[in-house]
Amino acid sequence: MEAPLSSTLDEPVRHTVTVPVPEEMREVGRRLAGLLRPGDLVLLTGELGAGKTTLTRGLGEGLGVRGAVTSPTFVIARVHPALDAGPALVHVDAYRLGGGLDEMEDLDLDVSLPESVVVVEWGEGKVEELSEDRLSIVIERAVGGESTGGAEGEEESDVRTVTVTGLGARWAGADLSVLSVA
Ligand SMILES: Nc1ncnc2c1ncn2[C@@H]1O[C@H](COP(=O)(O)OP(=O)(O)O)[C@@H](O)[C@H]1O
Ligand SMILES: [Mg+2]
Which terminus of the chain has a smaller tally of CB atoms within 10 A, N or C? Predict the structure, then answer.
């Protein structure tokens, strides 16, 4: 159902994107880069294989950072320095990050978090205290979504639903509809 036009400003802004194939998930990430500023926090929630890393890969491309974005499974956080004047990307696997904010600061990353874009996979419920202002992205497999997987051995594509919610003053009134792939 459409949100009522009368929704007040202190309600979080929310936008849902339907993503049929991995390449479009990457494109959502690239578009997301255009919305982000240094110091922004993005929490990515979704089961294993939902597409969190795929989206982050596009984000890294959009930000123009160094290094391939891969699953951070074997490290707590990986820093991708900016290639130009933009912010670095800090890609965190919160699954390995038990202690939230304190542990994040203890990581002694080679970069300043307020000057970086921080993306946390599996973030919800663990690192909210990092920042009241945050973009929460939930990726779900669309129920009854049609699989476009090809012949055996080919990578399967399944429709994902990406729900983006902007929380805090940072995101009040933000236009998240630019995330929709034309
Ligand atoms: N619509 C889609 N969007 C994103 N990934 C998809 C989609 N359909 C299939 N996939 C596949 O799902 C997997 C997502 O993996 P990944 O991004 O590493 O997930 P996560 O980081 O959430 O565990 C990839 O193999 C990708 O090719
Ligand atoms: Mg991942």
Answer: N
